[in-house]
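Researcher: We plan to redesign the surface later, but first we want a full-length starting point. Tokens attached.
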């Protein structure tokens, strides 16, 4: 009977030792990768500003911004998920209105009146492009 208990106790001791060494190994791995990270100050440094050129369907220039490092690409050359993501972020009902999102405008008016200040905008992607185009002239 004593022999069986000592065997079980040895297994527990070995498992505990293995657990401690496992924690040490995981801690060392985390420390190694933590030391490879750039400093927080370096993360905030702006090294490259993205560049973008917006062209109308007829090829006329709508707007440009940022710095350019590569050859410009047409929207049709991009994977569909790229332009779909931009449209979804800027105007999720883009394909469901005629250029002015009445629901978005109403939501913005209600929120702005409730907040007592301009807290949200309700312009559609079409309105943003038109506004940008007018301000560039």
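Model: Full-length starting sequence:
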């Amino acid at each position: 009977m004593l022999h069986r208990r000592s065997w079980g106790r040895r297994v527990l001791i070995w498992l505990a030792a293995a657990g401690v060494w496992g924690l040490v190994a995981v801690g060392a791995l985390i420390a190694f990768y933590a030391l490879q990270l750039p400093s927080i100050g370096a993360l905030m440094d702006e090294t490259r500003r993205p560049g973008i050129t917006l062209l109308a369907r007829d090829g006329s220039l709508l707007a440009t911004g940022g710095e350019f490092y590569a050859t410009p690409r047409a929207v049709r050359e991009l994977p569909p998920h790229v332009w779909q993501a931009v449209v979804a972020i800027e105007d999720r009902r883009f394909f469901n209105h005629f250029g002015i999102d009445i629901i978005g405008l109403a939501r913005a008016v209600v929120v702005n009146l409730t907040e007592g200040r301009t807290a949200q905008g309700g312009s559609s992607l079409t309105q943003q492009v038109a506004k940008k185009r007018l301000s560039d002239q």
